């Protein structure tokens, strides 16, 4: 994954008005068709999939559940650090899959998700 001169800003991260991300990112709920990936790609535009950009809310909800269950609470800085690591690690894995398979980041996100489901099924079995 290349180093960009700006921070990738998933939904929970706040951007200041003067910040101008150089990397477009997907809006919630897949507002562009998969065919748009080809158009963006032909213009040299990389779009981070919406599933990554908007994963922060679900991830932080999970953090809240974990903290409440353990009766141990993190500071906002700790939450942001954990969230950033998870989101950037996921993006790194998707980026590598995209390059290795020669597919868009959107398709790579689905590939990674399917691989994780298959691995979980192999390791844990099928729960009904």
Automatic annotation (TrEMBL):
SMART domains to which the protein is assigned, alphabetical: ELFV_dehydrog
Keywords from the UniProt entry: Oxidoreductase, Plasmid
Alphabetized Pfam families for the sequence: ELFV_dehydrog
Domain of life: Bacteria
Entry-linked InterPro entries: Glu/Leu/Phe/Val/Trp_DH_C, NAD(P)-bd_dom_sf
Every Glutamate/phenylalanine/leucine/valine/L-tryptophan dehydrogenase C-terminal domain range: 8-125
Entry's Gene Ontology BP terms: L-glutamate catabolic process
Gene Ontology terms for molecular function: glutamate dehydrogenase (NAD+) activity
SUPFAM superfamilies: NAD(P)-binding Rossmann-fold domains (SSF51735)
Protein's name in the database: Glutamate/phenylalanine/leucine/valine/L-tryptophan dehydrogenase C-terminal domain-containing protein
């Amino acid at each position: 994954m290349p180093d960009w001169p700006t921070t990738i800003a998933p939904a929970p991260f706040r951007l200041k008005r003067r910040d101008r991300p150089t990397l477009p990112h997907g809006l919630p709920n897949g507002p562009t068709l998969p065919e748009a990936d080809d158009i963006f790609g032909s213009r040299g535009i990389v779009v981070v999939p919406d599933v990554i950009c908007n994963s922060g809310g679900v991830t932080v909800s999970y953090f809240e559940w974990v903290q409440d269950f353990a009766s141990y609470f993190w500071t906002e800085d700790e939450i942001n650090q954990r969230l950033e690591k998870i989101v950037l690690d996921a993006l790194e894995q998707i980026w590598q899959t995209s390059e290795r398979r020669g597919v868009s980041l959107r398709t790579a996100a689905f590939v990674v998700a399917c691989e994780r489901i298959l691995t979980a099924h192999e390791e844990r079995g099928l729960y009904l």
